[in-house]
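Dear U.,

For the methods section draft, I wanted the exact inputs and outputs in one place so we can describe them consistently. I've listed the two proteins in the order they'll appear in the manuscript figures. Please don't edit the token lines directly; just add comments below if something needs changing.

First protein:
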Amino acid sequence: MRRLPAVTGMNAIFADFLTSVATSVQRQELSERETDRLGAVALDLAAAALAEQVDAEDQLAPETRRQALLARIEAFIEVNLRDADLTPAEIAAHHHISLAYLHRRFQPRELTVTAWIRHQRLARCRVDLADPRLRTRPVHALAARWGFRHASDFSRAFRTAQGVSPSEYRDQALSEQGWPLGRRTVKEPATDCQRHPRPPVTS
């Protein structure tokens, strides 16, 4: 038995996929239909990872190669989400496929490539907005961190997806974690000088 490093290539993609599926299963976020579909994808990725190890990717079934390509594309998108200039054309060029072929691969998701990128960026923003360690960061700074150039575009997209504004989402998330509404900073303890100010000097 030989261990396969899950650092680069299909091994890393396969490992990340299994980790995300396991997390979703633990949270009971998947329907039976989604579980069956992801199980089939897992088999395709496992085959692609093994084929990569023995340099036999050309012998994979066409559907397995398509699933492996889609996994690579999604991994590329995740790595480059912070790049505000990330476009479907750039993604297609990086993977040596046509733009039309790229769009066809995303049709089962019922989202365009651009919509998928926005969906992933919004997911990262939700995580940041709910993170108490980032509570002092302005909303627009968190949005820019994940590739949203304009605060107004981000706010509109976030409200459409979540039904509330980014600020409202943050307040609700932090409140559920025990942070009082409107209190975004931690009060620093007073120093000795602050507790006992020096008396004024008189001449």
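Second protein (the one for the lower panel):
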Amino acid sequence: MSLDKTYQLVPGTTIFDAEQSAKGYHLNQFCMSLMTAENRELYLADERAYLDAWPLREEQKRALLDRDLNAAIREGGNIYFLAKWGATLGLSFQQMAGSMTGMTEEAYRDMMVGGGRAAAGNRIDHALLEAAYCDPAQPAEHATITGAVFTSHVPAIGAAMDHHKTDEPYWSPVFEGYEFSKRWAKDNLPDVIFLVYNDHATAFDLSLIPTFVLGTGAAFPAADEGYGPRPVPGIEGDPDLAAHLAHSLIRDDFDLTLVNEMTVDHGLTVPLSLMFGDVEKWPCKVIPFHVNVVQYPVPSGARCFKLGRALRKAIESYDKPLNVQVWGTGGMSHQLQGPRAGLINQEWDNAFLDKLIEDPVGLSQLPHLEYVEEAGSEGIELVMWLIARGALSDLDGSGDIEVKHRFYHVPASNTAVGHLILENHPRADEPSVKE
């Protein structure tokens, strides 16, 4: 079923949703630049020159130069951001609001003194509303999840690749385990990868600790983690699909932080390197999805699993025939701090892989304490694998999965390496995830 956006039918109203945000990103960032006295002076000295320094569309520039707030909002502007621009021009909020109604400032003020604009006569036309709900069918073409990839994202693996050490005796067993994976990735190249990973105090420090972060921007560069950026390309995002996913997941009560600009660290780039090798450009688009597993409280396995179920519904309601893979990264057992540093639990790790394939619902009920006690303090990263597993179609009987590859090795630096490829085979005549 297509997403419910009937809010677009409310007359005289533009809702600032993810699509509007993407459309007006640079326009709204321009407005934010006016929060310093120096920039306000520069803007007022030469408005056109200041606007030309920003990557704005000509329609956006013209809306501002013409003082046309309605046009600015159509172009993706948000009124709270545009208020910074209005303040720079010396306009009150009431003056700005009045200019959008076709009323004089005095007439608008009198209307507000009289109790404001009445809702009567300013509601949705019921005929339009009924027409919007008349066809709840799945779009004729829609995106499909074709597989899931699960892999550790050890930073030392990336360093071994970057410094051409993959054939050394210590490292060769690790990379041999991904030879099949590289062939499979080439033969099963998706249009988009939804890649679940955790930032390692790179894009997010202790000033901001979001639980779930959806990357909605057009591009995300590789991060400098203290040793300089890895010699790998940044990723190309998919803002349209990401905006759609944001709408669907938040409507399903998952509170996401939406990020248009951030760097991506080894948690995201190492899995891409393992699957695609040394490339000048990643062969498909990537939507980054960060999960906080660094500072407690962290999301439970059950919450992550439910998010995966909601993610599948979100992807399958997107009305473009995209081939999408969902990757879960991190783990396996490892501890990087304290007297227990170096902990590895091979038996527990392999039992986790067994359950991930055969009993993901039961696996999702593991408490945090078991992850920490059995898999080490950093083994909690494995909850991210449950997002990818929750997105597959065998869980409600509407499809099947096929194990294409399984690999496990100890050690890779401080970590046990786990890797699994599951192909997703939904049945075309079966419904999507049930509400």
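Candidate sentences for the figure legend, describing the second protein: The chain has 20 helices and ten strands. Strands lie at 144-151, 192-197, 212-215, 219-220, 235-236, 257-259, 285-291, 323-329, 399-412, 415-426.

Thanks,
Y.
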